[in-house]
Amino acid sequence: MARTARALTTDVCAFLFAVGFSVLSADAVLRGRDLSDGWLLVDQATGAVACLSVFLRRRWPVILALVLLVAGTRSHFVTGATLVALFTVATHRPPRTTAWVAAVVLAPLPFFLVQRPDPADPRTSSALVFFALVAGAIGWGLFVRSRRQLIASLRDRAERAAVEGRRQAREDIAREMHDVLAHRLSLLSVHAGALEFNPGAPPAEVQRAAGVIRDSAHQALEDLREIIDVLRADGDAVGQPQPVLTDLERLARESRTAGMRVALRQNVADPAAAPPLAGRTAYRVVQEGLTNARKHAPDEPVTVTVSGGPGDGLTVEIHNPAPGAAPEQAVPGAGMGLIGLRERTGLAGGRLEHTLTREDFRLTAWLPWPASA
User: Which residues form the signal peptide (predicted)?
Assistant: First the structure.
């Protein structure tokens, strides 16, 4: 309904322009011509019909323009409607059609100039002004058409960028959920499995495992709540601070509490000075490496080595021997951890490699650390 009202308003404005142009220019064009009252009345009636025909310009722009051009050879009051019709052709029809119509309109111009018309003759100036107006109407129509196409293209690109942004945001959130929850839930699985297969464990060990299960479950719920808050927030969500390089010791301590043998070797002079993006990505790499080791080689020691500095980049290496046999109660996984890590590392400007042999598993990541950071 809004577009119909706008189109009707535009058509009314085009009609008023056609009427106003024909009436206001009539005195200058018809001056000096010996026209009878009857012929003048016919000319005006023709012009009135032509002006009314602009309401049909959207349906038959080319036909209307050609008919008005023919009628304009005998009637001045058709000129305003002719300009509107030519503008419509240039605006709504393909450039090839516009060029063909423009060629028909401007074809008489070379023949007119070859005749060397008298510049003092009013008909000469009227003809030149007419051709100039025709060229202006077609040119303005082409400009409007190009502008509309540009706006439509920009709108389409903006919509596609918004869709791509939403897709990227969903992937980032999914990756974050995997990295965070997989670590917490694997701790739960390890301790729950220990209680299941060792029901006669000393009370102190049972109490310690139950405490780890409770703390891990609570932390998993907190992490999940934080991610849901981000999904619900319209602006920047306020939640827990993102992990940095200095949090690796806490991460290793959590894994040791779960019964893993983790050796953390940090060869970084000032971990707190690491770029936030590199530190956060390094944390997620170590987190995923420990989770994988806990799933697939729960009884093997894990060595985590972090080294580097400004200008050299940050190198993270997680190494653990391959298990002798697959664990009976292996923690299931989605199989997307390393894929997500590779994407995360690539987005941070780094690279990720992993190798699996019969002897060991090695996960290595390199992240940029600019010298000026």
Answer: none
Give the separation between CA 54 and CA 12, rounded to whole angstroms: 9
Alpha helices by DSSP H, 55-121: 61-72, 79-92, 95-106, 108-114
Model confidence pLDDT, tens digit, residues 291-305: 888 878 878 899 999
Distance between CA atoms of residues 78 and 178, nearest Å: 72
Q: Is pLDDT of 106 > 90?
A: no
Mean pLDDT of the chain: 78
Domain count, the chain: 2
Residue 325 has pLDDT above 70, yes or no: no
Q: Which residue has the higher pLDDT, 324 or 106?
A: 106
* Cβ-based burial of 298 (10 A; exposed 0-12, middle 13-18, buried ≥19): buried
pLDDT (tens digit per residue) in 242-263: 788 898 998 888 888 777 889 9
The reply to whether 238 and 303 lie within a common domain is yes
The SS3 assignment for 364 reads strand
Q: Which of 129, 158, 187 is the last residue of a domain?
A: 158
Q: Which two tokens stand for residue 348?
A: 């941070």
Question: Does one domain contain both 151 and 214?
Answer: no
Of 3-12, 53-62, 285-294, 344-353, least confident by mean pLDDT is 3-12
Q: Do 184 and 302 lie in a common domain?
A: yes
pLDDT at 319: 92
CA atoms 169, 174, 177, 183: torsion sign: negative
- Highest mean pLDDT, choosing among 110-114, 228-232, 296-300: 296-300
